[in-house]
Amino acid sequence: MTEYGRGYGSEPWHPEDPLYGDQGSSRGQEQQPQWDGQQAHRYPQQQADPYAQQHYNGGWDGAQGGQPPYDPYDPYGQQPPADPYSGTNPDYYAAPDAYPPQHQHPHPQAMQGQQGMQQQQQYQQPQHPQHPEPHYDEGTGAGDDWRADPGPREPEPEHAFFADHGDDDGRDDLDPREEGRGGRERRGKKNKKNKRRSGRACLVVTLLFAGAVGTVGYFSYDFIMSHFGPAPDYEGEGTGEVQVDIPENSTILQMGLALKRAGVVKSADAFSEAAIDSKKDKVLQPGTYSLRKHMSAASAVELMVDPKSRNGLTIREGLRSGDVYKLIDTKLHLKKGTTKGVAKTEAKSLGLPSWAKNASKLKDPLEGFLYPSTYSVGEKAKPAAVLKQMVARANQVYEQHDLEGNAQKLHLESPMQLLTVASLTQAEGKYKHDFDRVARVVYNRLKPDNTETYGLLDFDSTVNYARSQSTLDTGSVDDLRNFNDPYNTYKFKGLPPGPIGNPGEEAIRSAIDPAKGNWYYFVSINPEKTLFAETNEEHERNRRIYLKEQEKAKQ
């Protein structure tokens, strides 16, 4: 049977519980225990008991008859027997601390059994001087083990986090009944220990919090200064001299990084801020610059926009390769013709694209591949390195415009022919608005059904390229037709063998996407105006306008 009623707040065993009395039916005939050799006195049976065949907690046998013993902790059991002297039923629950009071008038016949019971309880129950166990009245059997104290109840296991590792005897310090047994003293000790532990915990938390705040503050200050504070910068105009190469397509920040690596400025951010504040960030261009070390960012910007400090080499649109060689020789202080010789002997190692494999058979193998731009050329640079840099730039642009794919769309034999059309457009046109129509004239004259020029381009620019000259007076028609050169488009039909210059991006775009029209002729009457015609008669009228303009120019 479950032990109810032995701890605080537990409920006694109720007779209506389906398990009530299941464990007592087999003990009905056991010999009743003796106290001092005498049978304990029982209450006389007062009424028929429906539970007469059950054994009540080892202390009452229904086979022997009699009233079941009164349990002071069982609110559902029998009422306590009336006092034979007073005739009243004492209320044991009215006593302080829920303990029944001592009987003042015990029954005379139960004295011996009462004494024997007390002697046995001395060996069975622990002594509690402050709160003695309740005294039960006579009439119960001496062997009633339901009143025997089962001893201290084994505490339930406690989680290690809540366990108190201090001195604790298992008693509840909050119970008022423990006051006389050192409860206050133990509470004082425990409170002191708890305070010490709490103090140490608070100290640890405070130190951790202070460390975290300090760390966050340091990094916050560093972040704010690096992102919002003034950028590190030198002062003054600097000293010494150093050359700095700024690569092509460099941003302002990348320029600042290059200057910082060379020891010119203290930080790239300072250089960027100085360039933007001075509104000269758009003026700065790639190239090689002669600067000084430890310059302020503002001084570096001012010196870089000065043409005297720039060591870059600029190639303009339409410039022939021969003219580019001369510029390189002059820049590197080389003997005249040095770069041209390097271009002819080392052309295959300079990085030409695969579709330019026949370039070595041309008048100039690098014509059309020295892309117009500004390049970094230091004083100690080599001609081959400069040429290779220009060819690499040309390959990059030609890949962006897909010369191979567009040549197929335009029914040209190779990308080299498309590049040649672009060079003719660049040489014959003057402005972007002319490039689209000049390119259309080229494609119209290349048509097999061309009855205007019968497949001849008739361009003075090709003759001038063949003669290494640049003039408007190329001679009479007879002279031109007697000039036996593959670049003479007055004599040989179709496109010349290769480009006649280095076209820029606008001319390349016009060669890829020319204007729509039936023009076969054009003539530039002045640098600002070009006239286009579809027939030869219309073209002759435009030529007369051109001649008048030439006469005015001579006067």
UniProtKB/TrEMBL annotation:
Site feature location: Important for catalytic activity: 428
Protein location: Cell membrane
Domain of life where this protein originates: Bacteria
Membrane disposition: Single-pass membrane protein
Enzyme class, first EC level, given as a word: lyase
Record field: transmembrane: 201-221
Record field: compositional bias (Basic residues): 186-196
Alphabetic keyword roster: Cell membrane, Cell wall biogenesis/degradation, Lyase, Membrane, Transmembrane, Transmembrane helix
Catalysed reaction, written as an equation: a peptidoglycan chain = a peptidoglycan chain with N-acetyl-1,6-anhydromuramyl-[peptide] at the reducing end + a peptidoglycan chain with N-acetylglucosamine at the non-reducing end
Annotated CDD domains: MltG_like (cd08010)
Biased composition (Low complexity): 29-54, 90-128
One Pfam assignment: YceG
Bias (Basic and acidic residues) ranges: 130-165, 173-185
E.C. number(s) listed in UniProt: 4.2.2.29
Segments of this protein annotated with the region Disordered: 1-196
InterPro entries: MLTG-like (IPR003770)
Function: Functions as a peptidoglycan terminase that cleaves nascent peptidoglycan strands endolytically to terminate their elongation.
Family: Belongs to the transglycosylase MltG family.
Protein name (database record): Endolytic murein transglycosylase
